[in-house]
Structure formats: structure tokens, C-alpha cells
Amino acid sequence: MAFATLFTRSLTMKDNSPMDKALLLLRDDLKAFEACFEENMRSETDQFNRIGAYLLAAGGKRIRPLLLLLSARISGYLGSQHIVLASVVESIHMATLLHDDVLDRATVRRGFPAANLVWGNQAAVLAGDYLLARAFSLVIASGNLPVLEVLGRTVSCLVEGEMRQLVGSSALDLSQEDYLEIVDGKTAALFAASCRCGALLGNDGPGGDALEDFGFRLGRAFQLVDDVLDYVAEGTEFGKIRGHDLAEGKVTLPLIHALRHGTDDDRRCIAAALGRSELSESHFTEVLRILEQTGGIAYCLEQARTLCRQAGEGLRIFADGPEKEALLELAGYVVSRSC
Amino acid sequence: MAFATLFTRSLTMKDNSPMDKALLLLRDDLKAFEACFEENMRSETDQFNRIGAYLLAAGGKRIRPLLLLLSARISGYLGSQHIVLASVVESIHMATLLHDDVLDRATVRRGFPAANLVWGNQAAVLAGDYLLARAFSLVIASGNLPVLEVLGRTVSCLVEGEMRQLVGSSALDLSQEDYLEIVDGKTAALFAASCRCGALLGNDGPGGDALEDFGFRLGRAFQLVDDVLDYVAEGTEFGKIRGHDLAEGKVTLPLIHALRHGTDDDRRCIAAALGRSELSESHFTEVLRILEQTGGIAYCLEQARTLCRQAGEGLRIFADGPEKEALLELAGYVVSRSC
Hints:
Largest interface: A-B, 39 and 40 residues
CATH architecture of chain A: Orthogonal Bundle
Radius of gyration of chain A: 20 Å
CATH class of chain A: Mainly Alpha
Number of strands of chain A: 2
Mean pLDDT of chain A: 86
Shape of chain A: globular
CATH superfamily of chain A: Farnesyl Diphosphate Synthase
Structural class of chain A: mainly alpha
Largest sheet of chain A: 2 strands, antiparallel
Number of helices of chain A: 18
Order of helices and strands of chain A: HHHHHHEEHHHHHHHHHHHH
Strand order of the largest sheet of chain A: 1-2
CATH topology of chain A: Farnesyl Diphosphate Synthase
Number of domains of chain A: 1
Oligomer: homodimer
């Protein structure tokens, strides 16, 4: 069973899943996080409560909160602000999902119809704004300026990443470098910030640098795997319809690799499929065949594995212990969830 | 010539408009504000720069920055942070306009095609997010936690106001109370916050309370007049097509008054027009006749005048001087712009 699913399950413990020591370690923190996150979703405006309840019911992998909680603990933090900050980074993530779904005209998110389809684009934009405002208000109330600085910068990065994707990601000549710049902004930045904010609560310094770097590499790897899963995941497993990126006209690393190493016919086939909203199953299967034949999928996964290995190596400055073990396990999960 | 237009003209001084002492007083501050605001719009992402330049070219009344600058000065502030904060409140305002235009499917903003029509809804949402993130980053960099607290709370209010409008403002039985709750959230809150943030730079306390109250009443009055102008303004003058609220299905105070005091036939006519996107000129004229006959327009303007008078009265705790004069002039402008 996947790491993050175990984490989520640990909250209810309805099943008898084998639980790792590292997971048990965070059980109370995660419970407190879920309560805080739910509280943060509340509003005097009913519509926000309805959207909040819907988002909560859909669940989530909670990777960013996990990174924050573990980073705080491995940095020696013993207070309870990490619970609040875990809720903050998940709120920021949720806000970008809401705005992203409006952007992408998404139809499914985590196996449920996306919020914008249930309540409309207008409500989804406002719900995202509300989550962002609440998230910042929480940190402001805590008075932690270094954390505020990191998060302020990170939200700018996130939005710039999304904008770069919107403007440039449908180009057939998108370079791997430009692709990674998009990935770093829209995903790696918040992973890195989650780690740094956790560290800022405890002993920052070299440990904080190492954790931020860990988060950054993990975030990149996570997005690479996500982009692979968009081609190879089962619809229900992944919570998303396969081929969404292709139909949306989004060029990702598997495609970049295939375009570079394929034949002229391959490139023509991909070009004809890209951005076609009514993409046929057979056309998608043909693109998938090209991705496998040119090694696009394997290349992308290999890049992700390397990043996760490097991420893990960077933690060597920390003494062995359950928090480190859990972080390494999280890195393992990011790669293994593709299998 | 309208007050705010004079202010804007004062930046270039190409014409020989009669300039008030009060306006001249702020000339350097406004120049510095425009430079800071422009700087804040810059990004490493070209698309944000293009949208930023477009928004800058469209200009604006800059009422919130004016309130902030004057509030800081009347509170005895002598530093330069008020320039930064003026840029922050205008950025927040601009962000809500961008998101609001997406929400409202607006076609014209300040006489120019709305940003969402030029670059698409997706880019407009992201540009709004970017402006918000940059605005908060500026205040975070200044380390002013009391200002951050006010602004965090205010953005939540703004978004809640917009959501209330989205969910409830098309109801024919919308009460004046519910309407004002929407107005207070979406408009008055940021006016009030602009004044409070200015005061927080100087001598806050009773003066700050009075200024916040001034801003709140002025904001309410401003929105009431805005809602009247949506019925009676000339298209080019107002920068917006008349009848937009009616066609959008937005019930505002002139309509609430008319629905309460009109005949059954009047109510039927209004109900048939409300939310009809292809509203005919003659149907609109008929609704306008009802608004005038039932006194809806006059009632709304009277409310606005009362609010501005009360706002001015609240400034009596301040000694007479050019800043107070300018604030009173601003209150006068809010009402007079309807004529």
C-alpha cells in the first residue's frame, strides 16, 4: 500500500494495515493537522463551507503537510505551530488546485468531479482566493515573519510557474529546461517551502538548507511521475482521466523526449494529437506506443528516481532516526506510486 | 473636473487644470506611488509584464492609494512606507478586479476591453493571483505585522463579499441589509483598510478609528453611486456599458427600492429583465423609467450623500489642514461623480 494512503488511513484506522513506526510517529500530528485544516476551511459564508466540505471529503495525499511536520520534528521543534503551518501549506496547495482546475477546464480531480464543475468557475476562483487569504492570515496571526517571507515568495513562484505553463507548454519545441522551469515553479517550490518552513520552526541553518533541497528535488520528481501517470495510470487509481495533458495540449517530459528521439511520422502523430480535446482512444494509444518505443516514459521515471536518490543523500547530515526514516520513505513513495 | 481625474492629471500636468492645494500636496507622493506600483507589476514572466502594462495604461481612480496616503499624512507619518502600502492596496484592488471580471464575464473595464477578454480567463486569474502574492510580499518585507493583520482580514472580507454576491445577489427578494453586507465586503472593507493602514504608520488610536470609519462610509457610498451609475452613466464616461448589473442578474439598491415601491407590473417588468444577457435597449429604458418613478435612483443617491456627510463629520477630531481638506474633497467627489 502506498505511503501516503497509509498516512491517510492512519487517521481512521478502520483497517489493519501494516503501519510503519515512522507513520505511527506522526499519527497525532496528522490528526491535529486534519482538525486544524478543517477549522481553517470554515467561513461565515455558507458557500465556502460547502466547497470546503467537498474538498475535505475528496481527501488528498497530504504530502506537503507531511513534509512540513517531519521537517519541523527533524529540526528539533517541540511546539505546536507546525500543525498550523501544515494546514497553511495544504491550503495554499488546495487554492492552486482550485484555480488550476478553472484554468485547465478539468473534469475530474481525485476521482471526484472538480469543484469548478460542481459550483462553477466563479465560485472555484473565489474559494481559491479565500483559502489563500485564510492561509496567510493564519501565519500572520502567528507573527512568524521568516515563514511569511518564504510563503510570500513561494506563492509568486507557483503562479509564475502556472503562467509559464499556460503560455509556453503547448509548444512542440518546448525544451527540457523550459519544462523544468515550469515544474519547479508550479510544484517543486511549494515542496521546498514546506520543508523550509518546518525547519524554520526548529534549528534552521545547514539542516534547513538540506531539507529545502530535499523538498525541491522531491517536488520535481513528484511532478515528473505525475506527468508519466497522466499517460499510464488507470483512470480510477490515479483519480484523473488518462491523456488529459495531451488533450489539453500540455507538452511534458515524456513527450519532449519522444519528440526528440522519434521519427518524422512519430512527430506528426504527436502534433496531430496535441491539444485535440476530442482525442480518440486509438490516437492516444498510438502516442502511448511512441512514448514507450522512444523510451520517453522510462527516461522520465529514471530522472525521477535519480532526483529521489539525490534527495535522500542530502539528508545524510541528519542522524538516523524515525523522522529521517519517514522522509526517506516519502521519497520512496514518490517514485513507487507509478508502479 | 472630477477629483480623481485631477489627481491622475497631476502626474503628467500636460494640461493647465486648476489644481487644488490639497492635490498639489500629494503630487510627489502620487508620482512615487505610480513608480512603485509599476515596479510591483514587474515579473520575470513576460505575460505578467504585458498584462501589467495593459492595466497601468488603463489607469484608474486610485482612490484607495489616495486614502492611504492622506491617512498616513494626517496621522503624522513622515517616512516613505506609505508609498509602498498605497501600491499594495491598489494591487489588491486590481487583483479583485481581475478575478471579478472573470466572474462577471465582463466585456469592458474602464473603457478598455477587460483583461480576461484580451488574454483569456486563465491568464486573468493568474495575474490576479500574482498581484496578490506580490502585494503581500511587499508588506511582509516591510515587517509590519499590524498592517499585515488588517490586510489579511480584508482580503478574506473582499472574497466573502464577492461570494455573497455570486450566491445571493440575483434574488428578487434580496433585502437592503443583505445588499449592504455584500457592499461592505466587496468595497467598504478595502476603503476602510486603506485608511487604517495609513493610520497605523503614524499615530493610530482614536485617529485611526476615525479614519477607518471614514473609509468604511466612503466605500459604502462609493459602491452605492457605482450601482446607480450602472443605470444612468454614459457608456464612455463611466467606462462600462450601462445596464450591466441588470443583464448580469445583479440586484442592487436602486432595484431593491423599486421592487418594494413599484406596482405588480413594475415587478414583472424587472423580473423579466433581470439576468437577461441580451437585454433590449427598450426593456432597459423601461426598467430605468421604473427606477426613476419609484425614486430608486434618488433614494440610493441620498443614502450615499448621507454616508459621505457622516464620513466627513467623523473627521472633526482632526485639526483643520490640507490633509483633512483633501479627505473631505474626496468624500465630495464620491457623491459628485454621479452628476
